[in-house]
Amino acid sequence: MIQVEHVSKRYNKSALVVKDVSFQVGKGQIFGLLGPNGAGKTTLMQMISTLLKPTEGSVRICGYDTKQAPRQIRERIGFLTTEIKLDPLSTPNQLYDFFGELYDIPKEQIPVKKKESFERFGITPFADKRIMELSTGMKQKISIVISLIHDPQVIIFDEPTNGLDILTSRQVMDYLLELKALGRSVLLSTHIFSVAEQLCDEIAILVDGTIVEQGSAEELTKKTESKNFEEAFFKLYTKYHTEG
Amino acid sequence: MRHTLTIFKWEMRKIISNWRRTLVVFLMPAVLLLIALNVFPLLINYLSTGSLQSHPILVVDAPASFQEYAKNSAKSAIYDYTFMTAAELDEYAEYDEEVLQQKLRKGVILVLFYAKDENGKDADFDENVRRYYSHVAMEEDPGDMQNEMIVGFDEGSFTNYTQAQQFLLNIEAEYKDHLFQNFGQAYKEKGGGNRFETDAFNPYTFVLKNRANANLGAARTIPGVMILLMYYCVYSLAGEILAASRQSGFLTKVYLTPIPEVSLLTGKMLTVVTVSSISAILTYLLLFFSSWLNHSNSAFSLLPFGMFLTPMQLLYCFLTILVTSFVMCALCFGIVFKIRRMEDVLLNLQIPLALLVFEFFGQMFRPSASIGMEFLIPIHNAIMLIRDIFLGKFQMGNFLITILINGLLTVILMALCIKNTDGMIHISQGGSDDTGRTRK
Amino acid sequence: MRRAIRALVRKTFGKNHSMRTEASVITMLVCVGFFVAVMAYFTSLLVYYARREKPIDFHENLIVVNPPESWMGYTEEYQNILSENVAGKETMMVYKDWDAIYDVFTFNSWMDDEKAFLTLVFPRNFDEMALKAPIDELPEILTYYPTDHPEYATVQKEFKEKILEKDYLRYLQIRLGVPVEDSEVFDSPVTPLGKPTGWMHLMLDRGSRMVVPLLFFIAILYICMLSGMNAIAGEKERGTFASLLMTPVARGTIVLGNFTGVFLHAMIPSVLLLLPLIPLASSVGGYLSVLVLVVSLALFVSAITILISCLNNTIVSAQTTFLPIFLIILVVCVTCMQESTRNPINPFLPIYGHFYGIGDGLMGTVSWPAMLVCTLATLILTVICLKVSEKLLGMESFTVAVETKSEKELRKAAKALARQEKDYVSVSRAEVFGYKAKRRKSVLSFLVGHALLPLALLSLFQPVAMIPAILSYMRDPASTEFIRMFKSITNVSAISDVASASVKVFSGFMQDKFFILFMGLGYWAVIAIYICIVRFREKNPLSTLGFPKLAPKGTAVKAYLRGMVFGLILISSVYGLLLLTGQVECHGFSLEKGSVPLFLLYILMWIPQGATEEIMMRGYMMPRVASRFGLPFAIFFSSMCFSLMHAGNAGFSFLALINLALIAAFFAVFAYTSGHIYTVCAMHTVWNFCQGNFFGLEVSGNPGSASILSSSYSDHARALLTGGAFGPEGGLCVTIVIAMAFVVLFFAKKKSKRANV
Predict the structure, then answer these.
(1) Chains touching chain B, criterion 3+ CB pairs below 8 Å
(2) How far is residue B58's CA from residue C668's CA, in Å, rounded to a whole number?
(3) Which residues of B touch C190 (CB under 8 A)?
(4) How confident is the model at residue B375 (pLDDT cuts 50, 70, 90)?
(5) Residues 167-226 of chain B whose Cβ lies under 8 A from any Cβ of chain C
(6) What is the pLDDT of residues C19-38, one digit of tens each?
(7) HSE (side-chain half, CA atoms, 13 Å) at B102
């Protein structure tokens, strides 16, 4: 579903932020991007979700190229990032209706779908409160619901469990597994090992804009001859990270 | 088109749901202006005279007829007379021309009477008038007869001069008539005096006469003010619904939906245009009422009584405003799209505001008519066009040029915006803002 | 501390802030456009002073309506006077005949067709009146001119002064053989008492006193706004302020550091402006005083911006707060500019003192005490501002922007939510017409809204209804008298006269078919608005407006017919009582053939009129107020509103107030017991109709016309009983009848209750 081929990104005339990254995410797969802060995860995510254009290489989603057919891609992806906030003065209800119309969901289906997904995440009691009155966890849940409003084929989540308590992150993770079962492809970026370990079928470790190792959690642990996944990550990081 | 409407409805709902903001956006500038306009003459009055009351008028050696007139006339009731003799005046002025000058400078107006009889000798004013009329009635030569009312003021003070003129304008004809009614019996019997009245009661001409004065006054202030306030409205809205929503990342969220960028931009633009046009119309209405409520007839009114436009003129005004709000909006959007940092955006957006303030002052003291090339400058041409409408110098050609130029610029700017879609996305390059900036 | 301040100053003043702002190409282009506009401005000034402006193309002809013989004679004798006119073209005289002398529309279309700059309208009997030796009443000439250019007013004025009231008047006087007076004998010139001032000196003086101070003010205000808003509010917005507050730097130091940075910013343009002024200054002392004043002004404005920056959490809100201050200071500047004479205290005040002081300093007329006091006062104010800012930073609501703001708003939102929940009351105090309140507003806005809605609607639609009537009337020759009635309003001195004069005008309207027709339409519009409010805003069925669907199909019609009968009984008994007591005399049948259409229009008007008032007071207001405050208050409130609505009518008295309230209360109780307002609508309509157009009495101060019977008060009528000019509603008879009606209603209700049991 997602094909990233030799993608590089350079802002203005500075050094490359992402260097020659390639990977693929298949149908019904959860793919994790793991890396320290500033490794280029977000940039990569933004390139995949058509917000940025790669300097070199290409990204294809469902067969469409991000540079040539961004609109078709946007119809098929759900993108979630902490950078994108919801309008604080609106209520979840209003937001859902608004995005429902923007994603061209038939008018009569909007209330039905809304009820279903609001109940699933327990948003219903807060449906008429303003976003700014809600807690961080609730905001994140609403963000997720709205990102997935059009039932996308490909789901791109940038640190979805950031700032959430254990219960809520559990809920989010369960939901992702459910989506996976439905045959959706999920691209996940995180710096939390447990999440990556539990969820991802395949993990790519990103250091300084390049993928240094790729494979499932167990594979990576084995490869680096570590006790656990966490240690594996540290080993890889110290091996490939260069100062400056 | 449907998406444009969706965006438009969303933005409008957001603006309207917050009534306090709505009030600020729609009314605050207009109300502030209204207060400023109305307080202005009061302030000038206060500053020049030190009091808010009407100005004292010193009447020296007033004839009985003037005292009676001053007491009974409604027109002269607004003035505050102090009657004194020549000796008292000398005392008042402390026997010094300079002191008198200083007192005049505070808004005092001096009224002196002066009469010469047939032989050129000093005479009593009233008696002289009576004798004059009897001479006329008898068809005798009045000789060197002369009756004069002198209104004195300080030439150095424009305020004082205007007040003196206004005073004379208010009472001259009426007082002359008063003299005729009282002392012209002999002449009257012979058939002298007025044979008819002109427009003694003609509401239509009354309104038009006031309009002529008021529209000339309005042409000085209203165009500049309306465009200025409209830009204020457009700039604050553009900052809010484009720059601020980009800052918070919400715009990115909308951008990621599969709607065309054109719809997104036109939807937002439509909101700004709607709100700013409504606010401009409200401003006009407020100015209109403020003009019609201005009964003070003060010489310093920025907006005298009776401002009035015909429906056709109003229509042209409105169309100009509409097109101008489009071009302003496109301008603001263009600036927002080019610049990332919020502070820089606001600064850039404020520069036209500052320039418009200068423009306003320029128009306020402008005696000259518009020249053709001015209609080629966007936004400025709207000010000129509205000014011409108020002055009654409206020309269809100029109107079409204005519409064309502003429309064209709007389209060009919007096309540039749409080409530069990156402007919509808030990307912090890397993790936080700071690292992004240093990396740049 | 010193290091902290230095660090803060560097931060505010330093490189990574507005000094390195990004300017977009568009902004540059805007500046270029402005420059071109300025050039165009000066070019136009050149054109203006060279007197090369294109003259306006005026019309050249003159229309004379109903020209009297004297005018014809005058034009024949003095042809040359009229031949030269405003546009330098030859004037053609166009003669017309027209009776309606206020008919602007016809005159305007004539002026368009004939290319005329003026229309003179003479009255028919002008010569008879004007050419009579001792004159009794002056005839009036009316003038009209085209609307499309304000300059025509000047042309008209010139024409009036030079030709009409001078030449033509003299012509008339000569024909009468009146000796000619010499108006030169009466002079009232405005004579200047002053010294002329030198041109160069004046220019320099104006420049130094007006332009230079303004430049300083604008530069300082603008720069302070930019950097000041960025300093604290900007940091709060970016969320970096909290980290600064966490450091052990004292609050005062933070304020002082930011303040110094802003001040230094403001001094950049000030210094740039001050340097070229050195050769212009008249003395060293003067220049020094300018320096001191500019520095103190910059200090003061910086302190204000810091204060505002502390008060606000975002740049935008801070700028919004600062903008009014900016404008006020600019207004002060403009007032200072306008004035060459000044209040002696002003130079001692801040802002005023700065403006005057800068000008004085440059011109060398420094008043040292004023300057010192002004500077000192400014410094004190600056310190106060800074102290307040420091105190503000000690308060948590002004410090940690993002968190506290959301917390504050959370608290507010929680409060609003609690209020809302309280407001969603499902149980209403009393249910009338099945209305249930859905949500509540505050008590005051609720009551005021209910009281003002009918007033607003009526005061909107009644004047609108007048417009077509007035327009149609102006084309009618009969309007001359009518329009003069307006003059009677403007010519009165006491307030009571105004009232009676307006009644006269209004009664004139009441005889106009157009007015009656449009008033009827206006009432229908009000009804439509109420229906829209209920259906689309409240989303309630129409039964809550007192119009339920009644079970058998014709019940509503029957109820309406019953109401007509009841109404007839009520008003007949009032009339009967008046006849019996000998207060009123009936002169018999009086409807003329000509007023039959008017009579029919009246019927059409009274139907929506009665219904409108019932819908407003009983149908809409009563159930809504009742659900909030209970039935008794609702009846009282709606009755008082109804009563006070008529307070502006002629002859209104305390008794009228009570009576109207009583009638309203009766209708209210009747509507409540019957559960709908069909019957009361009919009663109201029939009451007003019979009173005005059947018996020929006055309806709540409005005189009726086109009545079937003609009645008048007898000579010994007493206003206490008849109500005088207000009509029977102002008299005791109505009180008696309504009281009886209440009793009947009470017993009928009791009976029906018993029947139900």
Answers:
(1) A, C
(2) 65
(3) 151, 153, 161, 164-165, 168
(4) very high
(5) 168, 172, 175-176, 179, 187-205, 208-209, 211-213, 215-216
(6) 456 778 888 899 899 989 98
(7) 10
